[in-house]
Amino acid sequence: MVSDVEYRWWATGHDGCIGVDIRPANNLGTYISGTLLYHEGGVHNEAGNWSPEARQIVVTNRIVRRIIEHAITSFGYVPEAVVTKLRLAGLDDVVEWRDEVRAVRRDSPYSMNWISVNCVDMVM
Asked: Does residue 42 form part of some domain?
């Protein structure tokens, strides 16, 4: 809930970025769309290819709240407006990262299964 409006959101992993989509829970009004980088570390392996070391960000309610607040203050976002979508593109420089949640990879360097660590209160 942000400014008395309840939202639903989802994050989708893509090559190089995470897509974040947010809409009012009543499915009326403007839909917010943007992207975040994974913010993960990595190394170049012997073949010269990039190999992620893990610790990528996890999109949480806290990050989504900050995106909505940014849309309101910077773009005059009004959830009830009859506009299809507000495309915000790259959001990495507008989201506060001091308390982000990170994911770590399971023991196998070849595993693509991620587990979350250090999860905190996820209420918006």
From this structure: yes
Q: How many CA atoms lie within 13 A of 27 on its CB side?
A: 0
Tokens of residue 92, six digits: 């990495």
Task: Centre a 10 Å sphere on the Cβ of residue 99 and count the other Cβ atoms it contains.
Answer: 10
Q: Which range of residues forms the domain containing residue 61?
A: 7-116
User: Mean pLDDT per segment of 10 residues, for the chain of length 124 residues?
Assistant: 87 86 88 84 68 70 91 91 84 79 56 40 38
Contacts 24+ apart (CB under 8 A), 45-49: none
- Tell me, yes or no, whether 124 lies in a domain: no
Can you give the pTM of this predicted structure?
0.71
